[in-house]
């Protein structure tokens, strides 16, 4: 009997010690309101609803999202910010680093994020800004809805740009995939001053007549990949601006929209040169431009080089292949000083709705150099008649078969 009682006492003591150890591991003392929890893989989950988010489609949940981010960013160990299913309205949200959490932090958007309808809350040109973070995954299958239909009517040419739905600024080692971006006020997404960013399996949509709703714009960044993505907007599906290096765009479907564009380049005096862009295995459907390079008149003297448009299908596209160095020429007479060189248009086929399907319209100050036209087969959509090409101030060479016939020498 004594041995039995002794065994019970030992068992009870072991249970108490085990419970104390469990409490110590969970560290409830750090989170008295149980605002975070551990997942099965050991990461701490920071659910925005535990920080006050309502997800009712009415309440501004921006501060709750920011609080959840701050808690995740400043923790130790693996961390995930969770936006669960629901309709989360939010004004301006800034998620800033640097962070102490184990890399990468995850932002998992399962529900719908809806932009707040009071434009006065957006003070930095962005709805959602992620900045100064090294190591991040943004995913979840949810939707980021800019509700642009409520504000596009206020956008006029020359007015300040409307807020970008999502900006990645001064970040590195970021993966963003499996999300929907819908009806941005301004651009849908922007990557700037960043390194090693991979964007894939996204769906970005807005009406074809929505103003300035580029799918993704990049500037002053390097090692950026955009792959396996569907984009249809009212402006460029992808626009690659100044200061970029080593950019890959692959397996992107574009349309409606203004095409896959290098530029615009040279609009601002502090812009820098860009080099190394490959746009490959893409399909454009019903766009107003196809493979395009565009620069402004009266630009700073910068360069754009080592650019490859290859293995591209055009379906009822206007201006399938175009270099246009005469942006804003009505207001500024001085030619563009952007030097374009080492550009390759290879294996491009499909249909054109414009009679001039290849247009190389370069700068008289710095004519284009080393432009390759290789294995191009474009067919007209009736009733425009036979296709033709045009050229001004460009040194180009032809390899393989070309339809329409390449332009005559034009330098």
Automatic annotation (TrEMBL):
Residues 1-28 form the signal peptide. Pfam families: Glyco_hydro_28 (PF00295). Its main location: secreted. GO terms for biological process: carbohydrate metabolic process; cell wall organization. SMART domains: PbH1. The active site is at 258. GO terms for molecular function: polygalacturonase activity. The keyword Secreted applies. InterPro entries: Glyco_hydro_28 (IPR000743), PbH1 (IPR006626), Pectin_lyas_fold (IPR012334), Pectin_lyase_fold/virulence (IPR011050). The keyword Membrane does not apply. Keywords: Cell wall, Cell wall biogenesis/degradation, Glycosidase, Hydrolase, Secreted, Signal. It is found in: Secreted, Cell wall. PANTHER family: PTHR31375. Belongs to the glycosyl hydrolase 28 family. This is Pectate lyase superfamily protein domain-containing protein. The lineage of its organism: Eukaryota, Viridiplantae, Streptophyta, Embryophyta, Tracheophyta.
């Amino acid at each position: 009997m004594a041995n039995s009682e002794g065994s019970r006492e030992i068992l009870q003591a072991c249970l108490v010690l085990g419970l104390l150890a469990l409490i110590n591991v969970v560290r409830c003392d750090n989170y008295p309101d149980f605002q975070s929890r551990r997942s099965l893989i050991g990461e701490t989950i920071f659910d925005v609803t535990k920080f006050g988010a309502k997800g009712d489609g009415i309440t501004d949940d921006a501060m709750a999202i920011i609080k959840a981010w701050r808690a995740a960013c400043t923790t130790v160990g693996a961390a995930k910010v969770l936006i669960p299913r629901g309709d989360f309205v939010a004004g301006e949200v800034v998620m800033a680093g640097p962070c102490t959490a184990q890399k990468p932090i995850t932002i998992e958007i399962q529900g719908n994020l809806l932009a707040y309808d009071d434009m006065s809350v957006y003070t930095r040109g962005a709805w959602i800004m992620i900045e100064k973070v090294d190591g991040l995954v943004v995913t979840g299958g949810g939707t980021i809805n800019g509700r642009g239909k409520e504000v596009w009517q206020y956008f006029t040419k020359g007015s300040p740009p409307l807020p970008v739905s999502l900006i990645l600024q001064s970040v590195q080692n970021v993966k963003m995939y499996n999300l929907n971006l819908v009806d941005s006020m301004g651009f849908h997404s922007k990557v700037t001053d960043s390194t090693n960013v991979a964007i894939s399996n996204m769906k970005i949509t807005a009406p074809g007549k929505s103003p300035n709703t580029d799918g993704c714009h990049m500037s002053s960044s390097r090692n950026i990949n955009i792959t396996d993505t569907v984009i249809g907007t009212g402006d460029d599906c992808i626009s690659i601006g100044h200061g970029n290096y080593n950019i890959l765009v692959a397996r992107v479907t574009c349309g409606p929209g203004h095409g896959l564009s290098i530029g615009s380049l040279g609009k601002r005096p502090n812009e820098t040169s860009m080099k190394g862009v490959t746009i490959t295995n893409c399909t454009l459907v019903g766009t107003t431009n196809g493979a395009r390079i565009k620069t402004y008149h009266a630009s700073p003297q910068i360069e754009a080089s080592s650019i490859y448009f290859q293995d591209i299908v055009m379906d009822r596209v206007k201006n399938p292949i175009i270099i246009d160095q005469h942006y804003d020429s009505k207001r500024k007479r001085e030619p563009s000083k952007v030097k374009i060189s080492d550009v390759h248009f290879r294996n491009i086929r499909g249909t054109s709705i414009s009679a001039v399907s290849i247009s190389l319209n370069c700068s008289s100050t710095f004519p284009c150099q080393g432009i390759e036209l290789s294995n191009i087969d474009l067919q007209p959509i009736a009733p425009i008649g036979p296709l033709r090409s045009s050229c001004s101030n460009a040194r180009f060479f032809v390899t393989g078969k070309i339809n329409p016939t390449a332009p005559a020498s034009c330098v």
